[in-house]
Amino acid sequence: MDEDGRPAYRRSTGSRRGEARRQELLARVTDDLAANGLVDFSLRRAARAAGTTHKVLLYHFDGVDDLLTQAILALRDRRIDGALAASGAVPDTLSARVRAVWPVLVGEESRVLDQAIGLTMYDPERYAELGRGASQQYLPTLVGLCPPDWSDARKAEVAQLVLATLRGFLIHRATGGDPAGIDAGFAALTRALDREEAAG
């Protein structure tokens, strides 16, 4: 296989032992990605981080793009787990839950996940799944933060609003945006959510 990520070996499938090994390798690569970001990510760097060879990684993954995508998904899952833990420890209002989630979103995984969104915009043909996957991963969590008595349609609408707004804040923050302006915008979002919830 070359550095473009074209697989030259058969990917492992099926066995419980093979899947356990795959998850172990993925966790190591994900830790490296969280610490060092996407710049210069390659199959050889991933192999060093995993303590194995690039041939072993190619046995378990369909090339460098598949490995990168799986690691990004794993980082998002970590972020979602943190968000759920934070939101579960606050009063039972949507705005309070969103306020609790925000520090998790700007935590240590933020830099890498923002870079992943940048890849999606830079090369949508190659990395479109990273962008689509983000919405698919985050929206169910945001729907779950909404009041349980809302209709499914209303929950979906508000979740889309929150996702798009928070993503905008994150991109603005990552590109050197004004922190005071982001704080003011976030406060405006939570006031809007309070009004939405008060509307019944």
TrEMBL record:
<protein>
    <submittedName>
        <fullName>TetR family transcriptional regulator</fullName>
    </submittedName>
</protein>
<feature type="region of interest" description="Disordered">
    <location>
        <begin position="1"/>
        <end position="21"/>
    </location>
</feature>
<dbReference type="GO" id="GO:0003677">
    <property type="term" value="F:DNA binding"/>
</dbReference>
<feature type="DNA-binding region" description="H-T-H motif">
    <location>
        <begin position="42"/>
        <end position="61"/>
    </location>
</feature>
<dbReference type="InterPro" id="IPR001647">
    <property type="entry name" value="HTH_TetR"/>
</dbReference>
<dbReference type="InterPro" id="IPR009057">
    <property type="entry name" value="Homeodomain-like_sf"/>
</dbReference>
<feature type="domain" description="HTH tetR-type">
    <location>
        <begin position="19"/>
        <end position="79"/>
    </location>
</feature>
<keyword id="KW-0238">DNA-binding</keyword>
